[in-house]
Amino acid sequence: MVVLFDLDGTIIDSYLGISSGLKETFKKYGVKDADSLDYNQFIGPPLRDSLKAVFDSDEEIIEAIEDFRKYYDEKGQYELVAYKNIEDVFIEIKDHKLLVATSKPQKRARDILDRLGYSKYFHYIAGAVDGEHNKELIIRDALSQIDCDEDEEIYMVGDRFSDIVGAKGAGVKSVGVLYGYGKRDELEHYGADYIVDTVLDLKDFFKNK
């Protein structure tokens, strides 16, 4: 069995760091109601796509992302916590092939997992490289780093529509989690193969596989 994990909203709760960075960036650019926005909508999918709901031009989006990353590199990446019991999931399935497939820049994802002490559980940590944030391609990159049997079951675990769409594009099964930033109707709409409510439910899901 092969299991790929998303990072934000699946392994870590990064809301504080991301929302604080975006709020500061939005205020700089005069975005209306920056204090009252629902920042969950910006976590998970590639930021360049999410920010189209806020900015009118690609130039503004690129500049805003650069400002956000300055904040995130200095402060935001440290304003996060691992979800309670998520390490128990890794331990439960440690004899299988575990991977990370995240839209976060690859180096930043690896640094975060190193700090948490989780890198040891994963055969490979795949993330955005050279601006490539397409989740399907990131999943395919992760899978290309290991040997898979033709009949081996492969699951992508994530909390947002981009994880489900990416999994379908890569031809693997998807497990949507509701403890992250996505909602059930979002995961159902995009066709998640399975949906679990909590981290412990995720552990039980794989325990029974």
Characterization of this structure:
With 209 residues, the protein is of the alpha/beta class. It has 2 domains: 2-13 and 81-208, Rossmann fold (3-Layer(aba) Sandwich); 14-78, Orthogonal Bundle (DNA polymerase, domain 1). Helices cover 42% and strands 17% of the residues. It is built from 9 helices and 8 strands. The strands form 2 sheets. Strands 5-4-1-6-7-8 form a 6-stranded parallel sheet, sandwiched between helices. A two-stranded antiparallel ribbon has the order 2-3. Strand 7 (173-177), helix 8 and strand 8 (194-196) form a beta-alpha-beta unit. Helix 1 crosses helix 3 (58-74), helix 4 (86-92) runs parallel beside helix 9 and helix 6 packs across helix 7. The mean pLDDT is 93. Pfam families: HAD_2. This is HAD hydrolase, family IA, variant 1. Its EC number is 3.1.3.5. InterPro entries: HAD-like_hydrolase_sf, HAD-like_sf, HAD-SF_hydro_IA, HAD_2, HAD_sf, PGP-like_dom2. GO terms for molecular function: 5'-nucleotidase activity; protein tyrosine kinase activity.
Q: Rounded to an integer, what's the Rg over CA atoms?
A: 17 Å
Question: How many domains?
Answer: 2
**Unreliable segments (pLDDT under 50, ≥5 consecutive)?**
none
CATH architecture verdict of the largest domain: 3-Layer(aba) Sandwich
Helix fraction by DSSP (H/I, runs of at least 4): 40-55%
Report mean pLDDT, rounded to a whole number.
Answer: 93
The number of helical runs is 9
Main pleated-sheet profile: 6 strands, parallel
Output the CATH topology of the largest domain. Rossmann fold
Q: Can you count the beta strands?
A: 8
How do the strands line up in the largest sheet?
Answer: 5-4-1-6-7-8
CATH class of the largest domain: Alpha Beta
CA distance, first residue to last residue: 9 Å
- Tell me, what's the shape? globular
The structural class is alpha/beta
The fraction of residues assigned to DSSP E strands is: 15-25%
